[in-house]
Amino acid sequence: MSLLADRAAQAGPGGARPGGGMPSRRLLVTGAVAAGWAAATGLAALTTLVLIGWIAAPHAAFGSGLPGVFRTAAQLWLVSHHVGFALHGGGRIGMFPLGLVVLPGALLYRAGRWVVRTGDVIRLRHVGYAALALAGPYCVLAGALALIGRTPLASGSLWQAMAAAFLLAFAAGGIGGARGLAPWRRLLRLLPERPRSLVTGTLGTLAVLAAAGAMLAGGSLAVHDRGFRSVTTALAPGLVGGILLLLLELAFIPNAIIWAVAYLLGPGFAFGYGTVVAPTGNALGALPMFPMLAALPSGPGPGQPAGMPAWVSFGAVATPYLAGAFGGLLVIRVGPTYRVEAAPLCGFTCGAAAGLVMAVAAAFAGGPLGGGRLTPIGPSGWQVGLVTTLEVGVAAAISAGIANWFAVGRGPIDDAGPGAAAAGGATGGTPDDGHRIYVDLWADTSDAQANDDP
To answer: Which of 148, 163, 355, 371 is geometrically suited to a Cys-Cys bond with 389, CB 3.0 to 4.6 A?
Structure first.
């Protein structure tokens, strides 16, 4: 009994051994159960949608009988993890709705909280073990579904399915586990003050860009409402098909917002070879029969070379700079008072972080639709990231520098090094008394040596 008690004490809280060991057997079993629950629940929800479509649509569209339905549901589950498919006749499909990621993400978030609670994880530093215990089995299940979902027409990428599932499970499960132990405000306060200011400024910048993109996409769709209705009427989906089409359009809303943000930033996006949609002008070819594509700007007209009014184009050009200025203000508002030369650099770092996020989002918001003309679809990730870094970063640097200039008088500048802190403690000064006393730490040594010299 004493030996078992010693082993239990060495395992540490939450089944995680101190010193960076692997999770205990109990945590591994809990993670496997949670991974199976998350995968099975998501697959069941998507199978229900496919069954509804199988009943309402011709059965030939889903293969032969119920096995074809389940195989289609497995493929749709992979699509929700943004896994690409290779067409056996040539080409590849990688253009998927980002809104579907919400389903597995929410399930994995919930699973991460359950693993932390059931596995008795009580420390935030052990949440990573719980996330690994969830992500490992979930990755294996994704690989199995990638093999099951293969058809004579298309097959999902095995390595991409396992990598995407592992990353999504680790990120969503880790966030859910951390949130189960502490509220959001406490988690944010775990960061040091300066990194927290950069994170807050980056999130504020991205929020402004996303809001502007949503307004642009929604406004364009409202202006082209007649084209939207005409395409929907031409498809004649019926009642059940109309509901499924509406769900698909809702799932493509994040893609539309990212495309609109790419338009605001300047690079725009493409919909096939030789096409471009940007504030400087647009050129489009034949488009697929999808109602949301009616929101794309029409061809150039009198006084509208970009297919939009001049004030819309001007607002598109000004939006990234306004977003960067807002982010720079948040960096100074949340963080400490910087040196005059350091504040613009922190603002530009905020713009670079926003550019990195936008580059990843733009890369995932597009993709090929088979081969041929529709291979390049969506914005270019590296172009969007580079332009975001320059436009937002410069505006954030300027606003941070100006805001820091006016904020210098509100308190002491927080750039004292370890030596200054030690000197402050030696002289008995308090950090909030508004004074800084700098002492030569080597003065006593040098004076003693000078007195000892003959």
So the answer is: 355
